[in-house]
Amino acid sequence: MSIETPEDLKWLQACAKVTKETLGILQKAVQPGVTTRMLERLADTIFAKYGARSAPRLFYNLPATVLMSINDEAVHGLPSDRVIQAGDIVKLDVTPELNGYITDACVTVAVPPVKADTHRLLKVSQDALSKAIQLATAGLAVNLLGKTIEKEVRRQGFSVIRELGGHGVGRRIHEPPEVLNFYHRHQKDRLKEGMVITIEPIIAMGSGRVYTAEDKWTIKTQDKSSVAHFEHTLIITKNKPLVLTA
Prior knowledge:
5-stranded antiparallel β-sheet; 5 helices
């Protein structure tokens, strides 16, 4: 979507508040011995406090409120009785709907003790996201965001997962344009003032090739390499973007 009225901005900011608060509380709760289902119950409590609903549940009939992916699970992991272990990499992907508006963000939490290569994986994903956000101004070719992300990731010896990336958001979870994490020379979209998008580097230690698990939701790396995923929702302006979920 694109921002058209002050009401649009007001409700997107309100929805982003739910996203940020949920992520903040879940991050603090990630520790050895906790199950992802216990984390989901925390998310349920926060959503209920604001009258928010799970956008993935609304649009895709997801059997969960939020998504939680561990280690080689890249995205779309479902909460369960799985117990978080020391050394795990936990992706928390939160996408509430509030009064018809949607915001989307993800963080990756490394559970101590953190290995050096794990620390570097998370840093590269965060750095790639930061560099892409800095570029995101009205008029920019969307594929230059992917070029920036892929260049940073490959320079550090990691891989982007090419099947997964950012997207337009606001009224639905996935709207145009696609915000790929690599350079696609045939992509002609340009960022427009007021456009609402997500940028989300999804980075693998290994090849970046993936498959869908038996639950039909979870996407995992074929080589079982770990994945980091960071994401923000932002509004494009003539200058630096307004990062709603930061």
